Amino acid sequence: MVFFIYKENKLPQYLLAIENLYNMNIMRITTKGRYAIRAIINMALHEDNTPISIKKISISEDLSPIFLEQIFTKLKKAGITESVRGASGGFRLAKDIDKITILEILEAVEEGVVLTPCTSTPNVCDRINECVLAQFWGDTEKKIQDLLGDQTIQSIISKYGPSVVNCEKGLL
After folding, report:
1. N- or C-end of the chain: fewer Cβ atoms within 10 A?
2. Residue 4, Cβ neighbours under 10 Å: how many?
């Protein structure tokens, strides 16, 4: 480990940016994002888009129902799911599966796709205007967003099959 000593214990901007990257877990799909995608795929494979309870999804996917409730609140707010009241109520998809993208799901649960602080946080770096890498990171981030924006729930099910839902715990 390398320690740096600076006047008045202030780190230069580039080291603060590196520290922020480390602390923000940049470019890592978190548990919340993975669970949201798993739940939506589970719903997509459910019969005729009839409502399904969070409890049933939690049991079939081996996920925390409390965590799923938080996720479904965000998915509903984003217009990806809708709730149905009553004895046979629950949640169902509010859109066709060929219209729901992975990027949309990640953004709904407040994940997004961010590579570096300079692409997402204004004024994080004093060198942004002359930094060669800032544009590179921005272009790379855009390509990843485009890729995730092109991947629909339908395309994933078509390409990888229903077994995608039954993957090993933690891999999806």
Report:
1. N
2. 8
Question: In angstroms, rounded to a whole number, what is the distance separating the alpha carbons of residues 138 and 98?
Answer: 28
For residues 113 and 106, is the Cβ–Cβ distance under 8 A?
A: yes
Domain ranges in the chain? Answer: 12-164
For residues 169 and 150, what is the distance between their CA atoms, to the nearest angstrom? 25
Q: What CA–CA distance (Å, rounded) separates 89 from 86? A: 5
pLDDT one-digit tens code per residue, 54-92: 999 999 999 999 999 999 999 999 999 999 998 888 999
DSSP-assigned letters across all residues of 42-85: HHHTSGGG--B-HHHHHHHHT--HHHHHHHHHHHHHTTSEEEE-
Cα 44 to Cα 97: distance, rounded to the nearest angstrom: 7
DSSP designation for 12: P
Classify domain 12-164 at the CATH topology level.
Arc Repressor Mutant, subunit A (1.10.10)
What's the pTM value of the predicted model, to 2 decimals?
0.75
CA pair distance 96, 1, nearest whole angstrom: 51
For residue 161, CA distances in Å to 156, 158, 171 come to: 7, 6, 15
